[in-house]
Each structure stands twice: as structure tokens, then as C-alpha cells.
Design brief:
Distance between the termini: 46 Å
Strand content: 5-15%
CATH superfamily: Cytochrome P450
Order of helices and strands: HHEEHEHHHHEHHHHHHHEEEEHHEE
Number of helices: 16
CATH architecture: Orthogonal Bundle
Number of strands: 10
CATH topology: Cytochrome p450
Shape: globular
Largest sheet: 5 strands, mixed
Radius of gyration: 21 Å
Structural class: alpha+beta
CATH class: Mainly Alpha
């Protein structure tokens, strides 16, 4: 049924514009089973928001049940390195483990530490924009978004400059596992990247324990709360999560956000006239076309959601992209309005205990990069229609070529 409504996450046309299908899903119901992906899809904002906060649903189920007890198959051995890495980060933990990890990480990853990066981020942005200006344009994704995001998170963590080219390939290979129905080869590639990335970070963290520096990896090796501290595996899982989440989304959003501004020249002109509108504009762009389209949750016990029985062991597909276009929350939701008063109610950073810890860093990076481009390249415009990556959950453009 869901495929007939247009929910076809492997189809390029759907990835490019999923919003008409989302409107059909919202009209069809509150919870809809999709047999192709084996997900129970949740398309309404109020439901997505509520279920993100409901402890009957989790990012993992292994704190309450075995695979067999959840009616799920055992995981193949070749995915062992991937799952070991991921389950030592806070995203795939549930309370009380998640609470402990997040508290420890938050003591090291502070708003003050993020704000201290402002000058360095602006310097990075200025150099990258200089290059674009000197070349008369270029690819905003490869020429600005990727090097900026890798540099910002690497500066924060303390990754040496010479090692940074390793990070994005590892990250992209690991994140391939977050797509709907990843292939066996995707899993093997992700596990190989997890092994290499873990080995690299194990060496770096031990070096920082022996010779502390002014960076987040050092802070994570030293953080203690009531005698509790991160294990080495938890530190590695945390750093990988911060790096993956800290640049995959911002890279994708930079391309998507600018493409939507180009497609709405009246709104782009408005933003150039009213630069103080930028923080709200970032929220509205995140609402209008989010880089994270779906967030998955396991059903930890038999439940009924709006009269629909959903069994223990099922997997929810919380449709962030649909929730952000829900007319019950956002009037005229298919219209981009950079002054929209309710824009901050978008769910692109999640909600509840798993709300994105790196949201302040992401906002800082986006506001500085968008603000600098608006100010310094007032004639920037697209040079070609962009192609979308063949990924749905972590969605973005292959490239966005511009003339400056």
C-alpha cells in the first residue's frame, strides 16, 4: 500500500522530491506498514515528536531483550566490528546507559568549547570563500561544505591535519549502514571502516592520555563524574558518532539549503536584504528540506498507536521530512518562508533524550558559512541542475556547482 502512495526510498525521483508522497501518507493514516522496508511509517509531526520521547521505543533493544526474544535474526559475524563500534556510542544506547554516556560527554563537549571555535570556523570559511571567489565559482559541496565540516569537527576533536583525509571515507562507509535495507557488501565495507577508524582512534586517545592537548579527545579521556568515566571503547564510539553526525548532516544541508535558496529567488533576495533573519532562515531551510529524512526506532513491547497494533520487535520509520511539512503545525507547509514564526518546531535535530548534542556546533558552522557567502558573493548562482545522492535517510546533493 505504501509503495502505491509513492513511498519508494530506492527510487531517484522519490529521493529528489519525497514530499508529495509524504502528503499522501499523512492523508492515509497515522501509522502505515511498509512491507518493502519492513517499517511502520509514522508521517505526522505530533506523532513523531511524541514517539521520539516514548521509552516504549528505542534505538536499540538489546538492553531489554535478545535478538531471538524480539523475533529478529542473529547478526552475521561480518557485522561484528560495525556493531561493536556503534553500540559503544550514545546514539545506540538507551537509558540508563545513554544517560550516563551523554552526561559524561556533555561535561567535555560544552557550549563554551563550541563558542571558542567561532574565530577558527570563520577563518576557515573565509579561506574557502576566497578560493571560490578567485576561481569565479566551483562546487559548494566539495569546495566548501566538505572541507569546512571536516576541518571544524577535526579542530574540535584534535585530529592532526595530516590524518584528516582518512576521516570522510571512513565516515561515509560507516553511514552506508544507516540506509534502508543495506546490502551485505555495504555491511562488509562498513565493518572494515569501523575496524580501521577504531584502531586509529585507539592510538590517538592513548597518545592524548599520555600527552594531553587542548582538544575534545583529551577532554573525553579526562572527564570524570562521581568516579565514573568513559571506557576506551565508549570514547572511540563517542568520537566516531560526533564526527559522523558532526559533518555528514552539515555537508548535506549546505548543498540542500543553498539549492532551495536558488530555487526561491524571492526568499534569497529577502535574506540578502535582511541578514539578521539568518538564524530563523536556517531553521526554516532545515524544516523545508531536511538532510535527515527518517529516524528508526525499535518497538520494545506490543503497543497500540492510534488504534493500530504494532508488535514487539517491529521497527518504526519516523519520517522527519514528512513531519516537517505537516500542515497541522506549519501552515502552507510547501511554501518556503524564511521568516516563518514556527520554523523552530522542526524535528531535524530530533527530540527527547536523543536530541542532537551537536546542534549548537552545527548552527554555528551553518550560520557562519551561509552568512559569509551571502555577504561576500552577492551574485552567486547555480551553474547547473544538481544530482541527488542515491541515499534516502542521509540525503544530499552529489555536487552544487555555482558561478560567483
Amino acid at each position: 500500500m505504501t509503495a502505491t502512495l509513492g513511498f519508494t526510498p530506492a527510487a531517484p525521483a522519490f529521493v529528489a522530491d519525497p514530499y508529495p508522497a509524504y502528503a499522501r501518507l499523512r492523508r492515509a493514516g497515522r501509522v502505515l506498514y511498509d512491507p518493502d522496508s519492513d517499517h511502520w511509517l509514522v508521517p505526522h509531526h505530533g506523532d513523531v515528536n511524541a514517539l521520539l520521547r516514548d521509552r516504549r521505543f528505542g534505538r536499540t533493544y538489546l538492553h531489554v531483550a535478545t535478538h531471538a526474544e524480539m523475533g529478529r535474526p542473529e547478526e552475521p559475524d561480518h557485522l561484528g566490528p560495525f556493531w561493536h563500534l556503534i553500540r559503544n556510542g550514545m546514539l545506540d544506547r538507551e537509558p540508563p546507559d545513554h544517560t550516563r554516556l551523554r552526561r559524561l560527554v556533555a561535561k567535555a563537549f560544552t557550549p563554551r568549547m563550541v563558542e571558542r571555535l567561532r574565530g577558527r570556523v570563520q577563518d576557515r570559511v573565509d579561506r574557502l570563500v576566497d578560493d571560490l571567489a578567485d576561481a569565479g565559482g566551483g562546487d559548494l559541496v566539495a569546495g566548501l561544505a566538505e572541507p569546512l565540516s571536516v576541518a571544524v569537527i577535526s579542530d574540535l576533536l584534535g585530529i592532526p591535519e595530516a590524518d584528516r583525509p582518512l576521516l570522510r571515507p571512513w565516515s561515509a562507509q560507516i553511514c552506508g549502514m544507516y540506509e534502508v535495507n543495506p546490502t551485505e557488501e555495504t555491511g562488509r565495507v562498513a565493518s572494515r571502516a569501523a575496524t580501521e577508524f577504531s584502531g586509529y582512534l585507539r592510538g590517538l586517545s592513548r597518545e592524548r592520555r599520555a600527552r594531553p592537548a587542548d582538544d575534545l579527545v583529551t577532554a573525553l579521556t579526562q572527564v570524570v563524574d562521581g568516579g565514573d568515566q568513559l571506557t576506551e571503547d565508549e570514547l572511540i564510539g563517542t568520537v566516531v558518532l560526533l564526527l559522523n553526525a558532526g559533518h555528514e548532516a552539515t555537508v548535506n544541508f549546505t548543498g540542500i539549503g543553498w539549492w532551495q535558496l536558488f530555487r526561491h529567488p524571492d526568499q534569497l533576495a529577502r535574506l540578502r536584504r535582511e541578514p539578521g533573519l539568518l538564524p530563523r532562515a536556517i531553521d526554516e531551510l532545515l524544516r523545508y528540506d531536511t538532510p535527515l529524512q527518517m529516524f528508526e526506532r525499535w518497538v520494545l513491547e506490543d503497543v497500540e498507536v492510534h488504534g493500530v497494533a504494532v508488535p514487539k520487535g517491529a521497527e518504526l520509520g519516523l519520517l522527519f521530512g514528512s513531519a516537517n511539512r505537516d500542515p497541522a503545525v506549519f501552515p502552507d507547509p510547501d511554501r518556503l518562508d524564511l521568516g516563518r514564526p514556527e520554523a523552530a518546531q522542526h524535528l531535524s535535530f530530533g527530540a527527547g533524550v536523543h536530541y542532537c548534542l551537536g546542534a549548537p556546533l552545527g548552527r554555528l558552522e551553518l550560520e557562519l558559512s551561509f552568512g559569509t557567502l551571502l555577504r561576500r558573493l552577492p551574485g552567486m548562482e547555480p551553474a547547473a541542475e544538481p544530482a541527488w545522492k542515491p541515499t534516502y535517510i542521509l540525503r544530499g546533493l552529489e555536487a552544487l556547482h555555482v558561478t560567483a
